[in-house]
């Protein structure tokens, strides 16, 4: 190989690496190419106090995407508790999409509204409840 060909070869490789790094920083590659895949669930805590569970991925710089979404619904009886008694609460895991307005099972969330994100273990009660929900609704 001549020196000119080597220079072009090395320069081309460097340019390719630079382009790949820039594209990665711009979040062009789908998250399915990442390390985690779609098997892990995350808990996304929002600034309005709501918590959603699902598979989190990135969409550009300003938004993230949450798919396969669940949330907790707390039901308390309409009767006030008597003095000295604790009022029973019923907590249900709800699949997004059954609401009156019929949303799709995907949310684009502004990053500014996210307080923090937690990765859920496979043995967490929420992940187990999601598995039971999926099994019952197949």
What features would you highlight for this structure?
25% helix; 2 helices; elongated; 138 residues; alpha+beta
Report on the structure:
- With 138 residues, this protein is of the alpha+beta class.
- It has helices spanning 3-25, 125-136; strands at 42-46, 51-59, 63-75, 90-95, 106-110, 114-119.
Oligomer state of the chains in this structure: single chain
Calculate the terminal CA-CA distance, rounded to whole Å.
Answer: 62 Å
Extract low-pLDDT stretches. 31-37
* Rg result: 23 Å
Please tally the helical runs, counting DSSP H or I stretches of 4 or more residues. Answer: 2
Q: Report the sheet with the most strands, covering strand number, pairing sense and barrel closure.
A: 6 strands, antiparallel
Mean pLDDT: 80
The coarse silhouette is elongated
> Helical content, roughly?
25-40%
What structural class is derived from the secondary structure elements?
alpha+beta
Secondary structure tally: strands: 6
- What is the element string, with H for helices and E for strands? HEEEEEEH
Strand content: 25-35%
Task: Summarize this structure briefly.
The chain has 138 residues and is an alpha+beta fold. Helices cover 25% and strands 32% of the residues.
